[in-house]
Amino acid sequence: MSIWNLRKEILYPPVDDMTEVATFLNGLNLELEERLDCILVLRINNRVVGTGGLDGNILKCVGVDPEFQNQGLLNTIVSELKHILYRKGYNSLFVYTPEHQVVRYKNLGFVEIESVGDYPVLMEDSMEGFNGFIRSLKKKTQRINLDLKKIEVASLVMNCNPFTKGHLYLIEKAARERDIVFIFLLTEDRSLFPANIRYELVKKGTKHLDNVIVFRGGDYILSYTTFPDYFIGSQRGEEKARRYAELDARIFARHIAPALNINHRYVGSEPYSSITAIYNQVLKKVLPLYGISLCEVKRKNYKGQPISASRVRRYLGEGNYKKVRDLVPEVTYKFLQSPGAQKIVDYLQNKFRGDKNGN
Length: 359
Known about the structure:
- By secondary structure, the chain is an alpha/beta fold.
- Helices cover 40% and strands 21% of the residues.
- The model has no long low-confidence stretch (mean pLDDT 93).
């Protein structure tokens, strides 16, 4: 069969039927992922010979019929999907691949970021990419008139959905105990409060702390790329969650922390989320291997219960602003009363009414 008869087709789950794609992938000992924005199908004489899907800017479900290996089909899949991404405004493409496939992707311009054993190996195809991200972090710290190699440098990685007194308590504790504190704010827009709002709330809420610098976490720190389970929960099982948590921890410990001379990382204890608890356990195992201490701090309580962002969201849904005010810094409370927060509050209150009515 000649690849000159190659036909390309884009399918959009769940609208389009994925049965044929799932069968093809199963024949290659691969699975059809549930979360795909689209999937490219390559056919020759109506036979599926290759597939590749996109979940955001992550390449998934890549398969090539063994009969057509080394005939450029992988290159075709990657090129077509990159065009789709660029039209959407993305400038990078990520892929998880087993170790034995790394060379194939390197030949297509991908660069390895980090790995956990044979799988996953996280690779990236980008103009700036991970090295550009590291350079931007270093550039931002140049205004500090201190030798980071001679002081105690701490870091926190936070979502702040929204920014609470619990978050502030943890930041202030780190700022008292260490010379410099770097906060990395998650920039995934997969939370109720948009990334730019969360970033501004934390910046304004910590401006009284002279030794605190706030960064945007980007694609490389606790992101959907490095640790997807943090955003989708434990649906894929604990073993996968631990593996990807380790991938994220290794990226931080082996690349980001050395670039900024970070020797401490602070986390809050986790009484509610099983995924966050797994993440903390993995950090506790991995970080000391690279000379980084993990400082797990018991959560700040209010009236006998740990302060949490989920608790704040629940009170917002109930319309109980008095309880909300007890749990959030003034900067967050002011935002919640502003027109900019109205859509968020409306959503939570509609959700609360629906839950209350059993809908």
